[in-house]
Design goal:
By secondary structure, the chain is mostly beta strands. It has strands at about 20-25, 40-45, 50-55, 70-85, 90-95.
Length: about 100
């Protein structure tokens, strides 16, 4: 039996949030699914890839530069709340962690 006491630890996201790791891509340049440049996290779910569009400042985010033009950044971890709108999964990030260089 394992009993956890206290609040969330560094390994656990806050209540109601998820922690996802995948490839960060541009929703317009790579996926052709958004009218303007945006950020999307591609997460492997078994054999298929699930796209989570980030509800952030799009190309105004500092991490967007690495994905605009069709490139991707691998091993990006995003913590946030997931919702669904117009058949797409959206992730409102509270934290975006890029891989260490």
């Amino acid at each position: 039996v394992v009993v956890l006491l206290g609040g969330p630890t560094a390994a656990q996201p806050p209540a109601g949030e998820v922690k996802l790791t995948g490839d960060l891509v541009c929703g317009r340049c790579s996926l052709k699914e958004t009218p303007k440049c945006s950020n999307a996290l591609q997460v492997k779910d078994g054999a298929k890839t699930v796209n989570y569009f980030l509800a952030d400042k799009g190309n105004g985010e500092p991490y967007h530069e690495g994905v605009c033009g069709g490139d991707k950044v691998a091993n990006v971890t995003v913590t946030g709340k997931v919702s669904e709108k117009d058949g797409k999964k959206w992730l409102t990030p509270s934290k975006v962690e890029l891989p260490k260089k």
